[in-house]
Amino acid sequence: MSVPDVLFYIFAVCLVGAAGMVVASRNPINAAMSLVAAFFFLAGIYVLLWAHTIAVLQVLVYAGAVMVLFLFVIMLLSLSERGPRSPITVGRILGGAAALGLGVVICIVVLKLDGSAATLTGAQAMRFGTIARMGELIYGTYLFPFEAVSLLLLAAIVGAVVVAKSRI
Amino acid sequence: MTLPDVTFADFHPILPALILMLGGAVLLFAEVFLTPSAHHGPAHVSRAHQPIIALVFTAAAALVSGWLMFQPARAVFLGFAVLDPFSAFLSLTVCVGLGLSVLIAAGFLRHRKAERGEFYALMLFGAAGMSLLGVSNELVVLFINIEVLSVSTYALAAYLRRGPRPAEAAFKYFILGAFSSAVLLYGISLLYGATGTTQLSAMAPQMSAALAKTQGLVYLGLGLLLGGLAFKVAAVPFHMWTPDVYEGAPTPVTALMSAGVKAAAFAALVRVFLALGHNLDSHLLATLFAFLALATMVIGNLLAIPQRNVKRMLAYSSIAHAGYVLLGVASLFVSGGAPTGGVLGATPLATGGLTAALRQDAVRGILFYLLAYTVSAVGAFGVVSALERREEEDRGTAWDLDRFAGLVHRRPWWAVAMTAFMLSLGGIPPLVGFMGKLLIFKSAVDAGLVWLAVVGILASAAGAYYYLRVVVYMFMRPAPETGVLPERHGWTEAALLLSTAAVVVLGIAPGLISSWLSQAGKLFGQ
After folding, report:
1. How far is B140 from chain A (nearest CA, A)?
2. Alpha helices, DSSP H only, in B36-84?
3. Domain count, chain A
4. Which residue of B72, B120, B416, B503 has the smallest Cβ count within 10 Å?
């Protein structure tokens, strides 16, 4: 097992654990902090995939800006230390079973894949996840989706103003 | 670095969306500069210019879509978008639904003194996303545009938050919508992993190789993609959100959701699965869509029957109508190579697979049905919004069947319009809903899905019960003694007049749009 493999398993196990904590934790602050941890481990996996820019953005934007906002909102709402204990209903059991079933199916599909996926080497890998390469793709090949995202952001900003405004 | 070679002709397919986006921007600026501030003017200032601006841009977008219908099909923007009559007809349908919803909203918001330019701007942005969804030929673009139309409708659903219901509806829609988007995106990523591309035109030839190597990945990816889209069209078993959200959202927004969002999501569904379905086991796809259609038609209609709340009844009926369209989608995928006498008795009349002509007929049937549903359902929601009173929303009785009692004595023309919409939704001749069902059932029978068509006809017969019940209440029940006469809104009545005209005229003379419809069966690359 090479170093990247070992790192991958560390990151992956910690990621799944942290994500599980987000769902299971009854204290909202604990859940939010577990989410920060999950974002960091995910950034580690991005680095192993040669996606350096995405990894940096993940830490800066999600683990940084977004999580600060999350924590502010939780503190402003001054939620109680322990969230309500949700009762177990038929719907929840069915939902959990469906999620579990889907998870099992995904695991089976992934385990059946042969591990001989293409790997990046040398100069190709050096270029792959860089800002320069990403910029070329965004402003070149992916120009149209990039412009479509601007419409999405505009709609989201106007929508946020509409939702946040005082009650009409 | 090479920049893509983009010419003005590349912008043709997205012109309707660009016009709608410009309209949204104009509305946002008009809100700032044209609306006198409350500090200087009277408390309630006139904002009649807002719906007029929205309508002008919607009409312009509709005209451009009509022109695009006759342009040769081609791929633009390096294959990320396509120009074909199919997407142009979809843009036209979206514009029709948007224009009628804007008219309803004008009356609705005026009654509640809640007019804001942002409301119409979000409607236009959402419609731009729907129009772009129709031209998307790449899965990332498809996902972004689904998000555009979803984000706009999330915000619109939360626009009026009076009482607990609207807030709950908006929140439910947002959470479940975000979940379904994640499912869709996961499916897209798995398909990318299996084929190495996200462009539909490039993915289709890769499918055979991908199936041979990573079969599980392809099927799982397509399944998750289908799940995400089925949520947007509200197909059973992904329909749970529909009644609550449709009931809680402001009625003009519900109208836009039921018409535009559904039509755009169906267009995406048809485009993706027609492009990728070639190399799949088509019997599997046909069976899958047939079961979705069966469940959606039957369960949607059965759940609508006990509803006394008309808005909720229309929500369940919108599920049922998604089932009829899914029946049309299923008939696209029936092929002659399938074992005959299978689960659903698929025995196509045309041997060796559905011929291209029959397939085009099926696409035409789907598009005409979406247009027919748009004019009928938006009109029905228009009557609901004209009748509902602000004071009763909190108690949840604003949409009770009793509010329709004796409507013919109080507002006879509303009763006549509602009768036309109900009969059209029920599929009763000579209205447009009947023509739509006729085309759908005909293509299903042509494809050999006879049993499913029979189930569909039985289901729509059951549906006639709850549509006719509204008519019975309007014409045969006495008006309540104490009932206040519903206020008239000029804008809403214009919407009712236009949709009634469309429902009747398109039902009697569908030939009026036959030149467009005969074009519209053509998809790029099909």
Report:
1. 7
2. 49-68
3. 1
4. B72
